[in-house]
Write a sequence for this structure.
C-alpha cells in the first residue's frame, strides 16, 4: 500500500465516552466486517470483557476508507488504555501514530486522564482531532465541551467535530478530517532502508507464542527474516507477519509506515518489551528508537489464597496472567499471620484491581490482598541504601539515617462547587499540598496538588468520587522521591508482634492510626480464657493499648459456631477462609479480623 495513503491514528478517550461505539460505526462505514456478524462476533466479545472491567486495551484495527477525493486510504486505528497506570504503554502506542482522535462525551466533559494522554500525544507531535460525542442526547453540551477542549489542551475549533457514534452523524466528516489533517507515515520519515520497528504491545497466544504488535518505521520484515530486539538483545526468526483487519490476517510483509504483528517464536513476554526496537539481526540499525523505558511496579501488596490449599492454584493463575502482563511481578512470601502467599508488584492501584478481579472471575480464586504499600527508600547509618516494598521489612529506627517516599503531581478536574471539600480531602485528611487552580471552560476547574503516593493509593479515588457526586476525575504522575518523616508502627497481640500488621506511617499520623488499630482489634478478636493485651509499638515504645478481657468458659462455644449452605465454589472458599483462625501468641485470631483491619488506615 502506498504510504502516502496510510493514516495511523490512536483513539484517546475516557471509559464510556464511546470508543467502542465509534469503532463499531467506523467498521460499518468502511464495510470492514460483515455487518450481521459484527455485533455478535467482534464487538460483543469486547463488551463482555469490558463489563468485567478487565480489558486494558483492544488490538488495533485496520480499515480501508474511500475519501471524498476518490482515493482509497488505509486507516490503522489503535486503542489506548484510559487508565492512569498505563501511561507508558499509551505513550508507546502514540509513538506508533501520526495522529490521534480525542473523543469526549458531550454530556460528561473532558476527564483528567484524557488530558494527560492528550499531552502525551502532543509530546509525540501527533495531529489531534477532537470529536465531541453523543450529540444526539438532549443533555449534550457541545459549546461547553468545545471550550473545555480549547482550555485544557489548546485544540482549536477547526480541528474539533461534533459526532454521534450511535447514530453515525458526523462520523464520515471525522474520517475526512483525519485524512486531510493527519500526515501520512512518511512524515515521520522512512529514514532507513534497514528494518526499524517499534513494539507498542504484545500478547500471548497458546499456539503462536508471543505476538508482537509493531509499527514499522523503516525497511520491511517478512517470514524467514532474522530479527533482533534491541533492548532485550535477543534474535529470532520470523514465522509470520500480518495485519489486523480486524482479525489477524497473514501478509507477505510489513513495510515502512505500516502497523501489524510479528510472530517469531518468542516464548516470554518479557522478551518483547513495549517500547523496544526491532531491527534486522544481520543488518541492524545503529541506534534504537527513542523513548524506551523499563516499567517498574510502584505499588506492592501481599496476595494470599483464601484457603492455604489454594496456594498452588494461585501460583499457577499468577503465572498465567504474567504470560500477558510483563509488568506483573511476584515472589513467594509467608507470614505467620496470613500463611503462604505472594508479594506482588503492580503498576498502580488500577492494575492491582484488574489482577484481583481476574483472579476471581477467570480463575475462581478468592484472594486476600493486604494494604498496598509504595516503595520506600532508606539510607542506613552504615551508608547502605535500600528499597522497602514490605512494611514488615522496614528497618529499626536506630539503623536509619534518612527515609524517602515517592511524591506525585495530582490534578483533579471538578465542578467548582466541590472545590473546598476536595482541597480539604487532599490537604487535611491526606498529606497533600494544594498548589493552584486553573480554569477549564466555564463550569469546571482544575485543582493542582503535590501529594505522597502512599496517600493516593488508599481510598483517595473513592473519597474524591463521593465528595463530588461522581463528577470529579483525577490523574497523577509520580515526580520523584523526597525525604519524609516516616516511622514503622507495629502491633503486638499478647506481646507477640504480628508481621501482617506492620505499617509505615508519617510520624504525625502514628498516634491516630495506632489508636484505631488497637480499638478495632479489641472488637474483632473473640475473648479467650485469659486477658489479652493489644499494643501498638512505634519508635521504641508502646503508643497505644487496649485489652480484651478474659472470658467465662460457657460462652466460648458461641464464638466459633455456624454452618453455611454452600452454593458457589467461590463463596464457599471465601466463607471458609473467613472462619479460619490464626494462632498468634496463644491467641486465636479469626482471619476475618485481619481482613477487617486491612481496611483501616
Ligand atoms: P467506551 O467505554 O468508550 O468504549 O464506550 P462505549 O462505546 O461502550 O459507550 C458507552 C455508552 O455510551 C454505551 O451505552 C453506548 O451505547 C453509549 N454511546 C456511545 N456513543 C453514543 C452516542 O453517540 N450517543 C448516545 N446516545 N450514546 C452513545
Amino acid at each position: 500500500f502506498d504510504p502516502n495513503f496510510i493514516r495511523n491514528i490512536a483513539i484517546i478517550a475516557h471509559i464510556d465516552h464511546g470508543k467502542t461505539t465509534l469503532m463499531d460505526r467506523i467498521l460499518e462505514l468502511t464495510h470492514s466486517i460483515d455487518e450481521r456478524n459484527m455485533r455478535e462476533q467482534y464487538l460483543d466479545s469486547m463488551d463482555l470483557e469490558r463489563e468485567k472491567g478487565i480489558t486494558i486495551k483492544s488490538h488495533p484495527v485496520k480499515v480501508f476508507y474511500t475519501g471524498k477525493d476518490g482515493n482509497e486510504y488505509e486507516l490503522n486505528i489503535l486503542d489506548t488504555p484510559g487508565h492512569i497506570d498505563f501511561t507508558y504503554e499509551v505513550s508507546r502506542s502514540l509513538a506508533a501514530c501520526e495522529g490521534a482522535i480525542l473523543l469526549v462525551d458531550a454530556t460528561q466533559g473532558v476527564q483528567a486522564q484524557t488530558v494527560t494522554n492528550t499531552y502525551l500525544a502532543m509530546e509525540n507531535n501527533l495531529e489531534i482531532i477532537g470529536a465531541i460525542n453523543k450529540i444526539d442526547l438532549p443533555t449534550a453540551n457541545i459549546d461547553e465541551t468545545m471550550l473545555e477542549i480549547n482550555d485544557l489542551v489548546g485544540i482549536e475549533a477547526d480541528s474539533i467535530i461534533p459526532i454521534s457514534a450511535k447514530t453515525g452523524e458526523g462520523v464520515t466528516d471525522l474520517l475526512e478530517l483525519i485524512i486531510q489533517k493527519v500526515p501520512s507515515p512518511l512524515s515521520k520519515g522512512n529514514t532507513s532502508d534497514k528494518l526499524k520497528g517499534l513494539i507498542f504491545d504484545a500478547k500471548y497466544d497458546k499456539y503462536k507464542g508471543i505476538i508482537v504488535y509493531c509499527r514499522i518505521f523503516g525497511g520491511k520484515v517478512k517470514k524467514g527474516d532474522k530479527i533482533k530486539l534491541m533492548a532485550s538483545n535477543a534474535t529470532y526468526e520470523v514465522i509470520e507477519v500480518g495485519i489486523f483487519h480486524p482479525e489477524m490476517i497473514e501478509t507477505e510483509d510489513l513495510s515502512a509506515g505500516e502497523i501489524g504483528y510479528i510472530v517469531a517464536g518468542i516464548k516470554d513476554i518479557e522478551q518483547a518489551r513495549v517500547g523496544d526496537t526491532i531491527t534486522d539481526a544481520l543488518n541492524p540499525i545503529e541506534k534504537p528508537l527513542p523513548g524506551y523505558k523499563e516499567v517498574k511496579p510502584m505499588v506492592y501488596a501481599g496476595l494470599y489464597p483464601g484457603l492455604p490449599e489454594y496456594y498452588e492454584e494461585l501460583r499457577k493463575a499468577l503465572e498465567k496472567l504474567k504470560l500477558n502482563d510483563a509488568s506483573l511481578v511476584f515472589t513467594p512470601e509467608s507470614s505467620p499471620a496470613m500463611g503462604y502467599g505472594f508479594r506482588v508488584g503492580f503498576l498502580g492501584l488500577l492494575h492491582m484491581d484488574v489482577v484481583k478481579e481476574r483472579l476471581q472471575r477467570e480463575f475462581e480464586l478468592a484472594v486476600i490482598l493486604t494494604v498496598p504499600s509504595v516503595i520506600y527508600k532508606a539510607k542506613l547509618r552504615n551508608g547502605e541504601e535500600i528499597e522497602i516494598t514490605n512494611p514488615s521489612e522496614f528497618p529499626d529506627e536506630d539503623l536509619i539515617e534518612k527515609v524517602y517516599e515517592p511524591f506525585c503531581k495530582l490534578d483533579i478536574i471538578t465542578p467548582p462547587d466541590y472545590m473546598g471539600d476536595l482541597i480539604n480531602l487532599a490537604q487535611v485528611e491526606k498529606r497533600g499540598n494544594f498548589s493552584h487552580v486553573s480554569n477549564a471552560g466555564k463550569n469546571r476547574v482544575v485543582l493542582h496538588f503535590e501529594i505522597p503516593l502512599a496517600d493516593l493509593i488508599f481510598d483517595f479515588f473513592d473519597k474524591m468520587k463521593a465528595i463530588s457526586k461522581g463528577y470529579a476525575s483525577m490523574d497523577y504522575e509520580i515526580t520523584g522521591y523526597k525525604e519524609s518523616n516516616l516511622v514503622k508502627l507495629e502491633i503486638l497481640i499478647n506481646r507477640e508482634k504480628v508481621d501482617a500488621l506492620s505499617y509505615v506511617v508519617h510520624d504525625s499520623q502514628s498516634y491516630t492510626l495506632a489508636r484505631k488499630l488497637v480499638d478495632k482489634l479489641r472488637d474483632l478478636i473473640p475473648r479467650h480464657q485469659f486477658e489479652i493485651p493489644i499494643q501498638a509499638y512505634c519508635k521504641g515504645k508502646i503508643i497505644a493499648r487496649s485489652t480484651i478481657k478474659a472470658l467465662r468458659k460457657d460462652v466460648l462455644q458461641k464464638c466459633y459456631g455456624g454452618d453455611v449452605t454452600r452454593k458457589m465454589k467461590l463463596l464457599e472458599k471465601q466463607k471458609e477462609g473467613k472462619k479460619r483462625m490464626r494462632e498468634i501468641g496463644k491467641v486465636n485470631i479469626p482471619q476475618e479480623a485481619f481482613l477487617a483491619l486491612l481496611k483501616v488506615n
